[in-house]
Amino acid sequence: MARGDFLGELAWRGMLHQATDGLADHLAGGSRTGYCGFDPTADSLTVGNLVSVMLLARLQRSGHKPVAVVGGATGLIGDPSGKASERTLMDQDRVQHNVKCQKLQMQRLLDFSGPTAASIVNNADWLTPIGFIDMLRDIGKHFSVNQMMARDSVANRLESREQGISYTEFSYMILQAYDFLHLHRAMGCTLQLGGSDQFGNIVSGVDLIRRVASAQAFGATAPLLLKSDGTKFGKSEAGNVWLAADRTTPYRFHQFFLNASDDQVGQLLRWFTFMGQEQIESLEVQQKERPQARPAQKALADAVCDLVHGASETAGAKAVAEALFSGDVRALDATKLKDVVVDLPSSAVSAAQLSGEGLSLIDLLPTTTLAASKREAREFLAAGAVSVNGEKATIETKLKTAHLLHGEVALLKRGKKLWHALRVSV
RNA sequence: GGGCGGAUACUCAAGUGGUCAACGAGGACAGACUGUAAAUCUGUUGGCUUAGCCUUCGGGGGUUCGAAUCCCUCUCCGCCCA
Which ranges of chain A have pLDDT less than 70? Predict the structure, then answer.
């Protein structure tokens, strides 16, 4: 595979925040191995993790070898760079399971075969056997506490009256630096990638490799991805956006990107797709000309959904969106309806509850995903926020057998885009 | 080990005996406007059998007609001294 200009590519995509000196020359000099860390805290990656995966994917496409390091050991401790609450220990089985699931997701984005085959390793494999004394003697002596305390991640916590920092979390950077050293020795890894908040930890690793192995290593970071209002990217109203279809349905995943703001859609195209510069710029021009058609958001949602879930899932997600947003849900045929229901949160009621007088929405809504309590249900109904099969409901509305589409399902909606399917159980 | 300060709803943060389901801000949600956008305006934001009632102010106990507010105790956190 021809070696591409990895750093140049990151630069035009706006994914390059910082890089250590000499990295460009180093990459130009041969096929290198680079890694990025992941927390195995769940059995699925999130769109937040997708940034890191894309870094590795681009590295690989530039002719280098990507390594994903799963923090089976460090995940137990918690990086003070993030938000700070001590973590609970995960047992080994759980970590193994999570690693397996995450690997499956990465397989869509990384190539695990060929000369630049990607690999996944777990840092518990080398961190667990190390004794505390060995760690202090061989690694700890290379770290200056003065320097460690100057790091932003630590300094913030030292200044904070409420928080403080435990010795355990304080030691996190040493472990991460050791990871880099280990990978350098075991796999010839010379590059670490991460978010900009990781730069301090990455440099620690580079320093350690220079001191202990007398070798040169490098690091590069991507800027933190924020929404235009400055809040963290990757959360929807329903919580985290996961890559796993059973946690975030392809429909919701597709919707998440479709709802990207005009301000941000260009950046997301650069970050999360493999589209070229010209194609993205042309989309941006189209977006400017006809913003109401949202060509950029559509292209983005299709491309990312395609990447993560595959083409057929993407088509399905689009069909569902079509039905829910521009079509009349009552006109759906039975097969289509089934597809729609699969992608929506759903619950069941018994046929008996709907017969005769019917079931009051005030009682029903709290049992669905649309309202948390009867009080809230009343509020939504009074505000005209709820509809049944596309028809506005009121406080008095009762759900009856007649509401069931094809005798099976009623589609409830709260607000503009929150749907819930109500099935009838036999 | 000693001294001091703190813990209030999703978050920050008022409140120091009754008028407190608890000021305010942010966030979130809904309505209008729109492009399934942004901005803006309006409303809601503990629960219920909703002009009323019930449960909340770190945990437990006490004082009082009445406690988020006073006392005791426990837990956790911060600061200072050893």
Answer: 1-3, 75-91, 153, 156-166, 226-239, 327, 426
Q: Determine the pLDDT at residue A86.
A: 44
pLDDT in tens, A296-331: 999 999 999 999 999 999 998 888 888 888 767 877
Span CA (A156) to C1' (B71), Å: 38
Q: Count Cβ neighbours within 10 Å for each residue of A13-41 and write b for 16 or more, e otherwise.
A: bebbbebbeebeebbeeeebbbbbbbbbb
Q: Is residue A240 part of a domain?
A: no
Nucleotide nearest to A292 (CA to C1'): B35
What nucleotide is nearest A297 when CA is compared to C1'? B37
CA of A366 to C1' of B48 (A): 13
Distance A350 CA to B34 C1' (A): 39
Enumerate the nucleotides of strand B whose atoms come under 7 Å of any protein CB.
27-32, 34-39, 43-44, 46-50, 77-79
pTM, full prediction: 0.83
Q: For chain A, what percent of residues have pLDDT higher than 90? A: 35
Residue at which a domain ends, from A296, A326, A356: A326
The nt closest to A379 (CA vs C1′) is B44
pLDDT tens-digit series, residues A69-102:
988 777 666 555 543 344 445 567 777 888 888 8
Contacts of A255 (CB under 8 A, 6+ apart): A301, A317, A321, A417
Q: Any idea what the CATH number is for the domain that residue A371 is in?
A: 3.10.290.10
Question: Tell me, what's the pLDDT at A83?
Answer: 38
Residues recorded for chain A:
426
* Amino acid code (one letter) for A340: V
CA of A386: nearest nucleotide by C1' is B30
Alpha carbons A321 and A244: distance in angstroms, whole number: 19
Residue A95 lies in a domain: yes
Nearest protein residue to nucleotide B42 (CA to C1' distance) is: A383
Which domain does A417 fall in, by range? 341-425
On whether both A94 and A137 belong to a single domain, the answer is yes
- Tell me the CA–C1' distance in angstroms for A12 and B25: 39
Closest nucleotide to A377 by C1' from CA: B30
**What is the tally of structural domains in chain A?**
3
Q: Are residues A316 and A346 in the same domain?
A: no
Task: Specify the amino acid at residue A125.
Answer: D
Residues A194 and A262 in one domain: no
Same domain, A44 and A142: yes
